[in-house]
Amino acid sequence: RHKSEEQFRLIFELSPMGMAITSTDDSVLKVNQACCDTVGYTAEELGQKKATDIIHPDDLTINLTPNQDLWPGRTSHFQMENRLLSKDGRVIHVLTKKAVLVRDSQGKPRKFFYQIVDITERKQAENQVRASLTEKEVLLKEIHHRVKNNLQIISSLLRLQSRKVEEPQALSLFKDSQHRVQSMALIHQQLYQSPNLAQINFGKYIQTLTNNLFRSYGINPQTIALNIEVTTAPLTIDVAIPCGLIINELVSNSLKYAFPENQEGKMEISLSSDQQGQLILKVSDNGIGLPDNLDFQSTKSLGLSIVRNLTAQLGGNIILDCSQGTRLEIKFPHSLDL
Predict the structure, then answer these.
(1) What is the per-residue DSSP string for 255-271?
(2) Are 56 and 85 in contact (CB under 8 A)?
């Protein structure tokens, strides 16, 4: 026993980690030099204090709950982060471990053992990183906000210019360009309004995008029923923007050409993933379909050319089915290798 006590004394005194022994009323019975160095008091000064005298007032209740398990022996020790006050008034962040050192014959604690590690520099570094991240997040939100505003200005300019255009085909081109700009602006709007600046809730995005298109083309949602189903995780901006533009082109084409003379019908948009992690975008309608003589791969239609080019940008491939209306399926990777 004497040998064990001597070993404990040597470990206690020579440890580079702060150590202290207290009574059950928090009176400080013994401290090592590392503990004195941490808080700036001598061993004699600490011996006249209680542990609670050097604990930050706001942290005095932190250990109440774990103490309730320590006293009866339901746990052997606990660990917590708290703050101490040094002799010169500095706030010291520490990692504290507390254990029962001695129990009486009835199992009640008589002495407690504390081990403290100064983590002030680590906490300061964490706070600096957190402040830096917050600053970057604010900056990124501002960038998305400004990009969205600039795109809205372009859209407004297109709308103003279109008022001077009387030729129907030219007017349609202006409107199509406006929708393309708005589809990109919507991505940036959703990003700066979202707590996650890196990813888009694509189901919400499609709903807003299609609502805008229905309103722009004067389509009654009760005439053309729209079903949207998105079962994938949020998308990154580099995938979301081309996806949004593809949906914009396909939905615009359907609303303009698939249902002539206010014909009733339905449209479906879905985004899912397969077992290999590939994303599958499907856009379909039960309208009159594409013209028989249309070659999708070589058509000079700007809208369909945009769909082809954006699909290539996504590293995907297109499957077109015109057996019942028009159904277009695009399969592509979840992320781009830039």
Answers:
(1) IIIISGGG--EEEEEEE
(2) yes
Helix (H/G/I), strand (E/B), else coil: 238: helix
Could you give the C-alpha distances from 111 to 43, 71, 99, 301, in angstroms and in order?
Answer: 18, 11, 9, 85
Q: What CA–CA distance (Å, rounded) separates 174 from 190? A: 24
> What is the per-residue pLDDT across 29-59, written as a single tens digit (0 to 9) for each?
999 999 999 999 999 999 999 999 999 999 9
Q: What is the DSSP string of 225-249?
A: EEEEEE-SPPEEHHHHHHHHHHHHH
Q: What is the spatial distance between Cα 320 and Cα 272, in angstroms, rounded to a whole number?
A: 17
* CA-closest candidate to residue 257, choices 247, 249, 245: 249
Overall size of the chain counted in residues: 338
Residue 172 in contact with residue 158, Cβ under 8 Å? no
For residue 264 the two structure tokens come to 């009733």
Residue 61: helix, strand or coil by DSSP?
Answer: coil
pTM over 0.70: no
> Residue holding tokens 């542990």?
51
Average pLDDT, the chain: 87
Q: Give the pLDDT confidence of 281-290 residue by residue, as tens digits.
A: 999 999 988 8
Distance of alpha carbon 78 from alpha carbon 331, whole angstroms:
52
| CA dihedral over 104, 108, 110, 112, signed as positive or negative | positive
CATH number at 2-118: 3.30.450.20
A 10 A CB-CB count for 3 gives: 7
Q: Beta strand 91-103 with 109-118: parallel, antiparallel or unpaired?
A: antiparallel
Tell me if 268 sits within 8 A of 325, measured CB to CB: no
Query: Cα angle vertex 111, ends 105, 114, to 5°?
Result: 145
Give the per-residue pLDDT at 154: 87
| CATH of region 221-338 | 3.30.565.10
d(C-alpha 145, C-alpha 164), whole Å: 30
The three-state DSSP-derived secondary structure of 106-143 is: CCCEEEEEEEEEECHHHHHHHHHHHHHHHHHHHHHHHH
Please give the single-letter amino acid code of residue 258: A
Q: How far apart are CA 5 and CA 9, in angstroms?
A: 6
